[in-house]
Write a structure and sequence with these properties.
Layout lengths: L6 H12 L8 H39 L9 H12 L4 H10 L8 H19 L1 E4 L4 H7 L15 E4 L8 E4 L13 E4 L7 E4 L9
Helix pairs in contact: 4-5
Length: 211
């Protein structure tokens, strides 16, 4: 009489029997491969979105910390913050990397990335850097209510572009969506009446906001 299988052996055999092995060229194998690939892509996209979200939160938190206790910033003060604080925030870290590198040795990955960030952001500031409009009273007042976490809240605020090559020029890049901001002030553009003293004039616009 043939020996009977123990409970454990029977369980293993049953499990192996249930697991199907598909031929690599079969339609089912292709479906499983596509499913795994799609799952992997979704995970990668979520990771990228998460990193972008964290980066934006860091940027907005920096400008949140620049809000004055009372009132708002002047345009000159906003430029000074961008030029002297924001664009130089990596300088100490970059100097440490350069000091740690022995003569004749190639740059570290970190040093290279920091230099690339500095160059990219300096170029953005030269051609037109988009920032939250900390010179606009309704925007500053609304920004003070931010919880420093929810990035979507920032979309309610007004954004402007400022540049190092034309520091007196202000371009409203995003007018803001909150009811306290929409229509509270007209966008500004520089005039050419006096080349030595650039001025800003209001431009009539009509904005429609959903909801």
């Amino acid at each position: 009489m043939a020996p009977t299988k123990t409970g454990k052996a029977a369980s293993v055999a049953e499990k192996v029997k249930k697991e199907k092995v598909y031929h690599p060229q079969s339609r089912k194998a292709g479906q499983l491969a596509r499913k795994a690939l799609r799952k992997g892509k979704m995970g990668s996209q979520a990771s990228v979105r998460g990193k972008k979200h964290n980066h934006l939160a860091d940027v907005y938190n920096f400008f949140y910390s620049c809000i004055p206790e009372t009132g708002e910033l002047s345009l000159d003060e906003l430029h000074a913050i961008v030029r002297d604080i924001w664009l130089t925030r990596h300088d100490d870290e970059l100097a440490e990397e350069q000091a740690a590198r022995r003569k004749g040795r190639p740059k570290s990955v970190k040093e290279t990335k920091l230099e690339e960030v500095n160059l990219r952001e300096s170029e953005e500031y030269r051609t037109g850097l988009e920032v939250i409009d900390l010179t606009h009273p309704p925007t500053v007042e609304l920004f003070r209510r931010w919880d420093q976490k929810e990035v979507a809240f920032i979309q309610l605020l007004r954004f402007i572009r400022i540049s190092s090559t034309n520091p007196d020029s202000v371009v409203v890049s995003r007018p803001g969506k909150h009811h306290t901001i929409v229509g509270s002030a007209k966008p500004l553009i520089p005039t050419n009446d006096d080349d030595d003293a650039p001025q800003l004039v209001e431009v009539e616009t009509q904005m429609v906001v959903d909801g």
